[in-house]
Amino acid sequence: MSPQTLAARDAVAAAVQRVAARKGPLAALYSGNARAVIARGLLVSRSTNWPVMVSGFFEPVLYLLSMGVGLGGLVGTVTGPGGAPISYAAYIAPALLATSAMNGAVYDSTMNVFFKMNFAKLYQGMLYTSLGPLDVALGEIFLALLRGLVYATGFTVVMAVMGLVSSPWALLMVPASVFIAFGFASFGMGITSFMKTFAQLDWVGFVMLPMFLFSATFYPLSVYPEPIQWLIQAMPLWHGVELLRELGAGVVGWGTLGHLAYYLVMIVAGLVLTTSRLRKLFLR
């Protein structure tokens, strides 16, 4: 590390200590200016990332057409939440929406964050200003949530056009998808802070693919042996799939609150992990 970098780091640490002494312990973590991180991200996305964002929207739509309509013609009706029979397309559509929310959030909070952290050195520059680690974390996570909101809104419209929406509760699938994305984004950014090489990013796909295939996405949980069912129910995507299925069918109960509580804990744990990691890495 160069003498200039060391001097800059020491100056930032001293400034953080002075501010914290005047305004309390939270001042070292949060300056109330996450909007600066968001504004920068929106400018970059508008000029460089829009093709990636568009392709991310079409992926679940293609799955819905191929599996829901194509394979659904062979499967017929299945048992939905509450025991009512529904079409196979209506059964997998909420699961694909949950998967889309997960994929968009994880992509933004892992690959994008990894490049910014280890190659662009963006966060170091941000934290040399008045911004705190929580400002950076909230700004980056908000960008991931905005992408999830676009995906969720578009996919829900597709579901409505295809006649797969039968309950007013389905309108809540959009904010619920953003809540799911929040959980994955906050935790994903914290996990990414431990990664040092591109090879380690392969573990992200290694974890996400089994969750996509085995979180009752395409067939019910009951097809698995009971020990495997407990393992699947511990996965975050399963809770997202069940949450959106219940909202889509209008079958809302205590189980729905349980799924929301799971993601609330995930969000809080992810924010704590991400903030502490950014502070440890760049404000030592």
What features would you describe in this structure?
The radius of gyration is 21 Å and the shape is elongated. The relative contact order is 0.14. By secondary structure, it is mainly α. The chain is 76% helix and 2% strand. It has one domain. α9 (236-249) crosses α10 (254-282). Residues 18-23 have low confidence and may be disordered. A hairpin with a 5-residue loop joins β1 (77-79) and β2. The protein contains 10 helices and 2 strands. The two termini are 13 Å apart.
Topology overview:
Blueprint: H1 3-23, H2 34-75, E1 77-79, E2 85-87, H3 88-118, H4 122-127, H5 133-161, H6 173-192, H7 198-214, H8 226-233, H9 236-249, H10 254-282
Helix pairs in contact: 2-3, 2-5, 3-5, 3-6, 3-7, 3-9, 5-6, 5-10, 6-9, 6-10, 9-10
Radius of gyration: 21 Å
> Largest sheet, order of strands side by side?
1-2
The share of residues in extended strands comes to under 5%
Please, what is the average pLDDT? 81
From the spread of the alpha carbons, the general shape counts as: elongated
Q: Between the first and last Cα atoms, what is the distance in angstroms?
A: 13 Å
In helices, the fraction of residues equals: over 70%
Instruction: Give the count of structural domains.
Output: 1
Count of alpha/pi helices: 10
Poorly predicted spans: 18-23
Give the beta-strand count: 2
The arrangement of helices and strands along the chain is HHEEHHHHHHHH
- Biggest pleated-sheet summary: 2 strands, antiparallel
Q: Please give the oligomerization state of what you see.
A: single chain
| Helix and strand composition category | mainly alpha
